[in-house]
Specification:
single chain, mainly alpha, two-stranded antiparallel ribbon, 2 strands, elongated
Length: about 100
């Protein structure tokens, strides 16, 4: 029997639990707990829904400046992605692949 007959390629479902745990551990290790709590609230309530700063202001019940600060931090951590602006529409923010895996 050849080696290729014994070893099958890894599938995403094979590594997803390990990645999910690693990303959760990284998230809980971040020093800015208030930003992490806001991400958790977003992920636990609306993980698949793009958000704007206005929507996050309402979700997190904080000022717009605080939303902007939190988004900046989460983007730098690779947990949120800002999409390019479409005309005059507000910028949409999405959870990154890492974040979506944490909340899946």
């Amino acid at each position: 029997i050849g080696l290729s007959a014994i070893i099958r390629p890894l599938q995403f479902d094979d590594i997803a639990p390990t990645l999910r745990q690693e990303y959760q551990d990284q998230l809980t290790a971040l020093p800015e707990e208030h930003h992490v709590r806001r991400l958790l609230k977003w992920g636990e309530t609306r993980s698949a829904t793009p958000q704007t700063q206005q929507k996050l202001t309402a979700l997190w019940k904080v000022r717009q400046a605080t939303v902007s600060e939190t988004l900046s931090y989460l983007i730098k951590q690779g947990l949120v992605v800002a999409m390019p602006r479409q005309g005059k529409a507000p910028i949409e923010y999405h959870l990154s692949g890492r974040s979506r895996l944490i909340f899946s």
